[in-house]
Structure formats: C-alpha cells, structure tokens
Specification:
10 helices, 3-stranded antiparallel sheet
Length: 234
C-alpha cells in the first residue's frame, strides 16, 4: 500500500531513497525478532530515466564565457573556475581543491587530489597540462611564483554567475558538471580513445562509462567525418 501510494506522488529517485531507508529499518526489526519478514524487500525499485546530457557547443561555451565576463567584477573568479573545469575535465570539488603546488610545469602535468575530501574514487591522478589549461594557469599565475599551498581558484562555486550568464546569453541552464561534459566531448572530437579519456577524468573502468555515456557523440562525429570521404575523380 505504501509503495503504490508513494510512488504516485514523488520522483523515482526520492521513492528509491525512501524505499532503501524503509528496507534498512525493517531489516533491523527482523534482526531483533520484532517481525518475521521484511515486506519492503518485496517492493520493486522504480526505474530512473537518464537525464539528457547538457553539453555546450563550442560556440555556446564562448558565449557563456563572454557573458560571464560581462557581469560585474565579482563574477571574474567564476569565469576562471568555469574555464578550469572545461579545460581539465575535473569535477567541481577537484577543481576548487587544486593548489599551485599540484602543478608540475616542467613535466607538463598536474595532480588531481581532491583536497581534504579526496577524489570520487579516493585516488589521486596525474593529468597532462592540456594547451588551453596551461594557458589559463599561466594567466592566473601571472609573473610571480605563487605559494604552493595556495588554491588556484579562491572560490567554491560559480553557480550564481553561471545562472546569470546563461540567462543573459539566452543559453540553456548549464551547470558546473556541463563543463566536464564539454571537456569529454572535445576529447572525443579530437579522436582521443575512451580509455585515455577515462584516465583523465578519473574513471577506473577503462573507458566503459565514457563509452556508455558519450558513445553517441563519437557516432555523430564519425558520421560528420565520413562526409569528407570523397572519391570523385575531380
């Protein structure tokens, strides 16, 4: 009765979360001999629809950055954060935790540690200093050496600036994570294999999730590239 009534009122994610809590509570009751069976175990989880990916095109990304720069001075650190996310593929918490000491200029790499919270898979990773990323970091560093323990980005979020810029530029409501999608889509268009992309963004599955999530982008790109295959004699 609870499952049928509740499922009609809330989203699949909320329902599944509440079902999990109820199952755990009744499991304790069963363990302590208060009930003989856990009825929540017999209720099915609801299927969750995969949200459509919000991936900015290159033109949209440039419009977004331009719109953010057109806001007041308080939004400027937010622009730097958005560019750092887009050029590195890092998650928000990873990007805001990067310090100047994490950057190996000579080795042309940087280390993603996730700071005190760590990365999602609890392992640091070494990633190349991609050209656009290096140019951004060099601009932020300026002419002087920055303290090794100082964070590259002094803010924790650019949410408000992003929302304002998207409205101003007439863009979809792009969030921080859309910049990670933007990085991956550009890597795919550049012909980088899924295994390498997975290593860059911190997936330990050898590219399975990247292929599952972004495989259609490769197919679209492949179709566009195929149009260049002209066999005419002229």
């Amino acid at each position: 009765d609870w499952a049928s009534a509740r499922a009609a009122k809330v989203s699949a994610s909320t329902y599944n979360s509440e079902r999990g809590t109820l199952t755990a509570i009744l499991a304790l009751a069963k363990r302590d001999g208060l009930i003989l069976d856990n009825p929540a175990e017999h209720t099915a989880r609801r299927k969750m629809e995969r949200a459509a990916l919000q991936i900015p095109t290159r033109a949209q990304f440039l419009r977004l950055v331009e719109a953010m720069r057109g806001l007041d001075a308080r939004a400027l650190p937010g622009v730097d954060l958005v560019e750092l996310l887009a050029y590195s593929g890092m998650r928000l918490g990873e990007a805001t935790a990067v310090t100047w000491g994490d950057i190996d200029w000579q080795g042309e790499r940087f280390v993603v540690t996730g700071g005190e919270q760590g990365t999602k898979n609890h392992e640091a990773r070494s990633v190349p200093l991609f050209p656009a990323l290096r140019a951004l970091l060099e601009r932020l560093r300026g002419e002087t050496t920055q303290p090794a323990n100082e964070r590259v980005i002094p803010i924790a979020t650019a949410k408000k600036a992003l929302a304002s810029a998207c409205r101003k530029a007439g863009l979809p409501d792009f969030g921080h994570h859309a910049m990670r999608h933007y990085f991956v889509s550009n890597a795919i268009e550049a012909g980088v294999d899924f295994k390498t992309i997975a290593a860059w963004v911190g997936h330990k599955d050898g590219g399975v999730l990247v292929a599952k999530t972004y495989g259609h982008l490769r197919d679209v790109h492949s179709t566009e590239m195929a149009k260049r295959m002209i066999f005419s004699a002229s």
